[in-house]
């Protein structure tokens, strides 16, 4: 037995929520604060470490449900705890600012290691939380073991990962030498299309002069994968419905990705100094978040658990979308936290010297408003005289103010 029949007791629930707060929220926030050299970096990480130690202790003090001693969550706790311990020691060393002798010479290397470990911890923490859920429910045992598997455009890396995974999928989804059963054909041919199309994506990621070039192949692969998953035959009704919605979501992610590259960005890379993100660009990202949650929540054991709970597929899918929304929100908050701290000077500069122009009552950018009105009336061959535009702005402002004054006088 992977788990005992006992329920999860209060102590273990406290362990779960404390560790989720420490590793899933506090440490990532502290990581971003460290990147931007914010003074709250150390206090936040100290708080996270204290909670992590408390949560670790509670994890060994609980009663109720018992687990196999060699479960993956327990095994992974040692390396991630060692990473945290090393990070704390390195942080103390850097805080002491010892710059004499050999300690001063290795400070740069230690600082680099501190940054690498700090950025890796949230990834390892997310993995450990997934392992915790697997262990708590007794999943991935017996027949349900997991298979352990710049100067370039974004699509190069996407296509490279897709190609590599396609090769793995081609030779691992069917036990070679045995009969082809159930979904073997679909899983194996899905791997084939991944590495075949992935190679095309790699080839198209550079133009004839070797410069980075965008392409829609990864979006196409995501779309075709969603179509394939949506048609997987399932033995349980709730599983069939979840796979269907998962397929639709993945297809939508692929389609919107193609639209983004082809029509929103028009094959151009996203500028590094872009202050605004097109609202459409959030759609494929969120859909990938949601499809990822549905993929992780559509295992055979999880589907059996949902079917036995009495919950219908609609409620379950809405829960998965809710979790995806929360993680998406948290990710956006981390990015925002980094952006406002790392680009503070550029934000002030753009506000002071940008093309905001004079404002009416502190709200309407007059120049922008006039340019917007003129834009639809001008042909491509016509040009706007900046001096004339500025003069028109002043005259328009004076004229408007005069009319308002006259109106009040009457």
From TrEMBL:
Q: Which UniProt keywords apply?
A: Membrane, Transmembrane, Transmembrane helix
Residue span(s) of domain Protein YTP1-like C-terminal: 100-339
Region Disordered: which residues?
383-410
Where is each DUF2427 domain found? 4-97
User: Any transmembrane segments, and where?
Assistant: 12-33, 40-59, 79-96, 116-139, 185-204, 216-233, 245-265, 277-296, 316-338
On the tree of life, the source organism's domain of life is: Eukaryota
Recorded hits in Pfam families, A to Z, give: DUF2427, Ytp1
Instruction: Give the protein name, as stated in the record.
Output: Cytochrome b561 domain-containing protein
Q: What is the lineage of its organism?
A: Eukaryota, Fungi, Dikarya, Ascomycota, Pezizomycotina
């Amino acid at each position: 037995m992977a788990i005992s029949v006992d329920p999860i007791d209060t102590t273990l629930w406290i362990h779960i929520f404390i560790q989720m707060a420490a590793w899933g929220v506090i440490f990532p926030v502290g990581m971003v604060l460290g990147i931007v050299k914010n003074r709250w970096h150390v206090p936040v990480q100290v708080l996270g470490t204290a909670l992590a130690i408390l949560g670790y202790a509670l994890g060994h003090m609980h009663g109720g449900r018992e687990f196999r001693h060699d479960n993956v969550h327990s095994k992974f706790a040692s390396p991630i705890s060692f990473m945290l311990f090393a990070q704390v020691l390195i942080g103390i060393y850097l805080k002491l600012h010892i710059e004499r002798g050999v300690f001063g010479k290795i400070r740069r290397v230690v600082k680099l290691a501190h940054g690498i470990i700090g950025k890796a911890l949230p990834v390892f923490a997310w993995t450990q939380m997934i392992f915790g859920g697997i262990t708590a429910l007794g999943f991935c045992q017996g027949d349900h073991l997991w298979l352990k598997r710049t100067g370039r455009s974004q699509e190069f890396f996407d296509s490279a990962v897709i190609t590599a995974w396609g090769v793995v999928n081609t030779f691992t989804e069917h036990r070679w030498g045995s009969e082809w059963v159930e979904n073997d054909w679909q899983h194996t041919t899905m791997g084939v299309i991944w590495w075949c199309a992935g190679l095309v994506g790699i080839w198209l990621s550079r133009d004839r002069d070797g410069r980075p070039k965008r392409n829609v192949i990864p979006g196409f692969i995501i779309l075709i994968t969603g179509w394939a998953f949506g048609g997987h035959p399932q033995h349980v009704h709730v599983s069939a419905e979840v796979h269907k919605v998962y397929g639709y979501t993945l297809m939508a992610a692929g389609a919107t990705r193609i639209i983004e590259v082809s029509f929103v960005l028009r094959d151009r890379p996203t500028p590094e100094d872009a202050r605004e993100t097109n609202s459409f660009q959030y759609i494929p990202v969120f859909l990938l978040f949601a499809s990822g949650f549905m993929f992780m929540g559509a295992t055979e054991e999880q589907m059996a658990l949902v079917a036995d709970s009495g919950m219908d597929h609609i409620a379950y899918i809405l829960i998965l979308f809710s979790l995806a929304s929360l993680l998406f929100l948290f990710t956006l908050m981390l990015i925002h936290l980094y952006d406002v701290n790392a680009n503070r000077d550029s934000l002030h500069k753009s506000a002071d010297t940008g093309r905001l122009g004079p404002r009416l009552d502190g709200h309407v950018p007059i120049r922008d408003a006039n340019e917007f009105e003129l834009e639809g009336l001008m042909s491509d061959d016509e040009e706007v005289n900046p001096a004339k535009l500025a003069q028109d702005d002043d005259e328009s402002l004076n004229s408007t103010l005069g009319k308002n004054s006259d109106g009040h006088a009457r």
